[in-house]
Structures are given as C-alpha cells and as structure tokens.
TrEMBL record:
Transmembrane segments: none annotated. Pfam families: MTS. GO terms for molecular function: methyltransferase activity. The lineage of its organism: Bacteria, Thermotogati, Deinococcota, Deinococci, Deinococcales. It comes from the Bacteria. Keywords: Cytoplasm, Methyltransferase, rRNA processing, Transferase. One of its GO terms (biological process) is methylation. Coiled coil: none annotated. The keyword Hydrolase does not apply. Residues 1-11 have a biased composition (Basic residues). This is Methyltransferase. The keyword Cell cycle does not apply.
Amino acid sequence: MTGGRKQKIRIARSQDPQPRRSAPPAPGQAPAADPGYFVPRPAALPGRLDNLRALTKPGVRGFPEVDAAQALLVQTMRKDRVRGEVLDLSAMGGLTGSLGGVTLRAVEGSAAALSVLEAAGLQAHAAVPGDVLTGRWPERPRTVALVLAGDRGNAYAQAQVAWAHACTPPGGTLYLAGDRDKGFDRYVRAAGNAFGTGETVARDGGMRVARLIRRPGPTPPFPEAEGYEAFGVKVVGLPGVFSASRPDKATTLMLEHLSALELRGQAVLDLGCGAGLIGAWAAARGAAVTLVDGDLQSVRSSEATLRASGVEGEVLHSDVDAALGERTFDVVLTNPPFHVGRGVVLDVAREFIAAAARRLRPGGTLYLVANDPLPYELPMGKVGPVREAVRQGGFKVLSATRPG
Ligand SMILES: C[S@@+](CC[C@H](N)C(=O)[O-])C[C@H]1O[C@@H](n2cnc3c(N)ncnc32)[C@H](O)[C@@H]1O
C-alpha cells in the first residue's frame, strides 16, 4: 500500500509491540504460541479500563490492544454512567458492550472486526456510512458512539459525521472520538454545526472525545463518490476507499508490467480489491474474476466499478480469504495493505500471501506489488520460487508460481 507518496516505513513484527499490559511469561515458561491469524483473542486493555473486555485479532484496528480513541470514548461513557441501548457505529472488538448496564447495537464495516464480534456473541450489523439502520433497529437509541477514522481521509470522516447525525434522534447524545493529529477538531466543528451543540470533554495524549446533543435539523449531505478511468476501466471510488480518486502508483506499476499477461478464461483473484481497479482490469481482459476486501465500503466501491466498467465479477466481503469457501485460482493479484489504523503492521499482508499459497492451483501464479523495503520474498517462497519482475520508483513487483 502506498497512498501514492513516499513514506518512511518502520516495520513492526507481529509479536511486537507487545501488549502494554500483558504479563510477561513466568521464568522458565514458554511465551504463549501465536494462535494464528483468524483466531479471536482478548485485547490488551489499558489499566484504566479494568473490568472491561474486548476481543481482537490481526486486522482489527488497534490490534493487539484496543484502539486508543475507542478506549478513551468508553472511559468517558463509563464516567458519564451511560446506560441502556447504545448504537456503536465503529464497534471494533465490542468494548462498548462490556460497559455495565449497556446493551450494545454493534455496527462494523470491517470483516475482521465482524468476526471477533461474532465470536463475542454480539450480533453485529455490517454497514457503511450512509446505510439506513432502521430496518434492523426500528427505534433509534438515545446514545450513539463513533470513532472517526481520520486516517481514511476527509470525505470518509464527513460521511461518518453525517451518518452519526442521521442515526441520532433529536435530544439524543453522540460520543465522538478521534485523533487530534487526524483532523479531530475540524470534524467536531462540522459535527457541532450539524448537531447544534457539543464540546470536547476528554483528552488523552492525542486522543479526544466530544459529546454532542442533537437538536432538530437537517442531516449534512454525504460526500459524492470520486473516480477515474485507467487501464480501460471506469473506477468508482467511494469515500475512504484506497486510491479512490486516482490509480495507486504501485498498482499502476504492476498492471503496466502485466500488460502482456494472457488472462482469457483464467480464474483470477483480486485480493484486497479496494475500488476494484485490478479485478475490473482482469475481467475486461476475459478473466473470471473474484474480488475480495475486508472493508465493506471497498466492496461496495468494487461492485460499482464492475458495473460502471460493464464487466462481470464476484465481489466478496472477506477477512483475507475467509469467505472464499472452496474457490481456487490460476492467478492471484494483490497490492497488500500494511497499515491498519496508524502503524505499519504486516500480519495482514503475510496472511494475504499465505492465502495465495492456499488458493493457487498447481502452476498458478501470485503477482504482488509492494514498497521496496517490505520483506515479502521470504513468505512468498512458500508459494514457489520468487522472481523480482521489476523494481522502480520505490516499488517492486514480485511473482511466485506454485509448482505444477
Ligand atoms: C493497498 S490497498 C489496494 C487496493 C487495490 N487493490 C488497489 O490496488 O488500488 C489494500 C486493500 O486491502 C484491504 N484489506 C485490508 N485488510 C484486509 C483484510 N483483512 N482482508 C481483506 N482485505 C483487506 C484494504 O481495505 C485495501 O482495500
């Protein structure tokens, strides 16, 4: 993942940073074995949230801890003695639901988070900003909670604020959390204009929580989709989706490099499809394509891209390959993610490669593009011999073919 600009990459290994509050193994005792990518486990909580609980797994924001903004949000709600039904529009690992006296209505767009919410016995609802929730819960609850994903850009945060407004009844309260360094003050001002009143009530490091009471009034407009045309397809980029307004430089390098690849009649997997450029490109070249993304907004974006491009394909909301059943492929194409929230985390990218190894038919090939320094050659060796096809502009395209 590149976001189109040069960046310094500091790589955190999956077992580091250690959860801040986890007890070290006793002398002579082996450290706990890694339970594996898909297994939900208790999230490490800061001491001030003692007696609360949440699950997590790789791919959930904040892993292996709880997201710092959500931690402050829940701490603030506990101080305010919030009780009754709470609609949490960014439920992550279900921390809000462990507040005493709270009945959680959990909403999430992340397939990884939905899997841990399910493991916690919470019947979460998969939705994105703008979705109407009254079909699922006809009465709007008087308390709504939301963590702004400032790292997903201005349009997404605006859509989140508009959604929170639409979901809060007049007289109801919104607890809004976010990161000062990701535009929180700006979004609170926008939310304050829409809600009529509200102020920041808690601060911890860069994290902030505002409490807003909704007065009657219109919901602000939702931002429009962006998009572009490239490689013979029409991409529809919904707010918050990776490279929504222009093709990513790394993806561009990979598609240029693969321009002579014969795909007609091939089963192709676009793993981590974002707005769907790669999958639509492969479909336009005659492949039978499956696109997957763990982010529901990206799934919606890819569906729109296939429609706008006049090509067919299957788009699945899936934590890596969890929703793929028995499907196998001749070609896997990916520009894997290495950010979940703030830090550089490679657990998800490594699982992308492991999934390619599981899903490729004998003789099938994984093509992967990444920033130069990212160490994907070793895990890709499990697929087959690794080739560096091209290295240019800070990126490299690697391939590995499963022995036939
Ligand atoms: C670097 S972007 C690439 C998007 C698109 N393929 C492109 O080239 O423009 C990586 C994508 O992986 C998705 N992703 C992140 N974690 C995932 C997970 N656990 N399972 C499936 N997809 C995930 C992100 O939502 C994002 O769309």
